[in-house]
Write a structure and sequence with these properties.
Blueprint: H1 3-9, E1 24-26, E2 31-33, H2 35-41, E3 52-54, H3 55-60, E4 76-79, E5 90-93, H4 110-177, H5 181-209, H6 216-225, H7 232-247, H8 262-265, E6 266-279, E7 288-293, E8 296-300, E9 304-308, E10 314-318, E11 329-331, E12 337-340, E13 346-349, E14 356-360, E15 368-374, E16 381-389, E17 394-402, E18 408-412, E19 426-431, E20 437-441, E21 446-450, E22 456-460, E23 472-477, E24 483-487, E25 492-496, E26 502-507, E27 518-524, E28 529-534, E29 539-548, H9 556-565
Antiparallel strand pairs: 1-2, 1-3, 4-5, 6-29, 7-8, 8-9, 9-10, 11-12, 12-13, 13-14, 15-16, 16-17, 17-18, 19-20, 20-21, 21-22, 23-24, 24-25, 25-26, 27-28, 28-29
Length: about 575
């Protein structure tokens, strides 16, 4: 049949990125994907959290509406059915549940039971597809390198040992061939010929006698003329020798097993990209940001607003927060908001958006908390405080550490009776992976860094090549221990290493999508993107400056084509 005639009668779907054959569909970006583009899609940090399914599954099971609980990063799928026995609704946790351990209730219809099981497995598939397979692919690359280098090293050693043994064998052959070998061979051949002649003579003699009588020598000679095979008893010494040799074999470990850290799995982009910018409803400025999930963040100026990162719409509002604080809120490991209220108390807002708990009651009117941060590793609260000196009209600052219940643990600097020269006005505070405490001190015009014990490590006052005064504002760290700080003097976001050495500019005014002064910063550990808030208006941007090693999922030409279209 004519192919052109077929194309006029059949609608063929092509990949939205490379025009290949469609096999998968992404619900988030509504794109048709081929096999190779799907592999890139679920590995790329900007799209790995998207819901991707096969086209057959898409047609059989349309997407269900997601839960609308505000501020709860742990999505819960509820299946409510018509239960004739008035049982309680079946609630199935979506995160961390192993499919084989959950049995849907018997009163559910077969269609509902299959839907529950399908959603259970979809979460498992998401983890395997986006995380586990990529991690194993990275380890496989390292093992291939080890194999190539190891094979080369073993080959060189093997050749040298073979040459040594070959030289010994050659010496033995030379020793045998030395002297008059030809004469010795002739003498030995003559002896063997004579011996064989005697054996044949006796054989024919006794063979003639076998017609009249049976003798044992005849049987022996007949056995000797057959092909001889070793008996089992003859093999025992050989087997015993092999067993003893195998017992001497010892497995010696070559070193620690290969593992990959987060910093090994990621790579810095040569040109950071502003993925999207949106206007946040409910605030005039984006002075501070605390990331809950890739879909929801807390943004603040005077109020604190829970924002949908897809639309910028307000999901919840906290109106009793500190009016002038910059880094006045944070999020704990459970996704709960912790903030400073108007009375300078440290408050925790539970995920139901109604229950509040006072963690730290403000009693010392001399010191006022101005910024707070919850350590993701220990759960401790780091609170930056300041005190006004009416005589010198300057501020003095300090940092206090509390546990997750609000119990006091530590003060930096240690002695309250001595003049504090370490901090003046702590605006933002965060913690690095190595335990360092980082404070963005606006009055000192520096990022002041101490160890977890409170020992001063360094103070960053701007890039060496920069001009003018450094004015730090928002600050955060990433999984590779880089320090990101916004500078309202140069309208940039700068990246430092863990020791305070300037590395590069993440964002500058010339970056497409950056037409404002950056202020609030927050790092998302799921997508490894940084949220940047504006000091000029209510704009918030999502910037990607790191990504995975995409060559593990596709060829270089295809990666370039997909990135160009994205």
């Amino acid at each position: 049949m004519d192919p052109t005639r077929i194309s006029t009668q059949v609608s063929v779907k092509h990949c939205s990125l490379c025009q290949g054959d469609t096999e998968y569909y992404c619900y988030k970006c509504q794109q048709d994907l081929c096999m190779q583009c799907k592999k890139l899609h679920v590995v790329d940090l900007s799209t790995k959290h998207h819901t991707v399914t096969s086209y057959t599954e898409k047609m059989k099971n349309p997407p269900k509406q997601k839960s609308s609980q505000s501020g709860d990063p742990k999505q819960v799928i509820s299946v409510r059915s018509q239960d004739p026995d008035n049982h309680e609704p079946c609630v199935m946790p979506f995160i961390g549940l192993r499919p084989r351990k959950f049995q849907p209730p018997v009163w559910l219809s077969p269609l509902e039971r299959s839907e529950i099981q399908r959603r259970q497995y979809s979460d498992r598939i998401y983890q395997l597809r986006g995380e586990t397979i990529y991690y194993r692919s990275f380890l496989l690359e390292g093992l291939r390198y080890d194999r190539d280098t190891g094979h080369k090293a073993v080959t060189i050693r093997g050749q040298s040992k073979a040459e040594m043994r070959g030289q010994g064998l050659k010496d033995l052959i030379d020793e045998v061939l030395a002297g008059d070998l030809k004469d010795r061979c002739i003498i030995q051949k003559t002896r063997m010929t004579r011996h064989m002649s005697k054996l044949l003579k006796y054989y024919h003699k006794y063979e003639q006698l076998s017609e009249t009588m049976e003798t044992r020598p005849i049987k022996f000679l007949r056995i000797m003329t057959r092909k001889h095979s070793p008996r089992k008893d003859d093999m025992k010494p050989i087997i015993k020798m092999l067993v003893n040799l195998m017992k001497e074999i010892r497995l010696v470990p070559s070193g620690k097993p290969r593992r990959a850290g987060v910093e090994d799995l990621l790579t810095l982009l040569s040109s950071p990209v502003v993925q999207k910018s949106l206007s946040v409803t409910g605030v005039e400025l984006c002075l501070h940001i605390s990331c809950v999930t890739p879909d929801r963040v807390w943004v603040s100026d005077n109020n604190i607003i829970l924002t949908d990162t897809a639309t910028g719409k307000q999901l919840h509002s906290v109106e009793d927060s500190l009016q002038t604080g910059f880094g006045k809120h944070t999020v704990n490991c459970e996704g709960e908001l912790i903030y400073i209220d108007k009375e300078y108390n440290i408050i925790k807002l539970c995920n139901d958006m109604e229950t509040t708990t006072t963690l730290i009651k403000h009693t010392d009117t001399t010191w006022r908390p101005y910024c707070v941060y919850c350590s993701p590793s220990s759960g401790d609260l780091l609170v930056g405080l300041y005190r006004e000196d009416t005589d010198s009209r300057t501020n003095t600052g300090k940092v206090m550490r509390y546990d997750n219940t609000g119990k006091y643990k530590q003060t930096i600097p240690h002695d309250d009776n001595t003049p504090h020269t370490l901090y003046e006005d702590p605006w933002y505070i965060t913690e690095n992976n190595n335990g360092d405490i980082l404070v963005s001190d606006f009055d000192r015009r520096a990022v002041v860094v101490t160890s977890g014990e409170g020992v001063h490590r360094f103070s960053y006052t701007g890039p060496p090549s920069g001009s003018g005064l450094f004015r730090p504002r928002g600050i955060c760290t990433d999984v590779m221990s880089h320090i990101l700080v916004s500078d309202c003097r140069t309208d940039t976001v700068q990246m430092l290493d863990r020791d305070g050495q300037f590395l590069s500019y993440v964002l500058i005014r010339q970056t497409p999508g950056m037409d404002y002064t950056p202020c609030g910063l927050s790092y998302d550990v799921t997508t490894h993107a940084v949220y940047v808030g504006s000091y000029d208006n209510n704009t918030m941007s999502v910037c990607q400056y790191v990504n995975r090693h995409l060559h593990l999922a596709g060829n270089e030409a295809q990666i370039k084509d997909v990135q160009d279209q994205q």
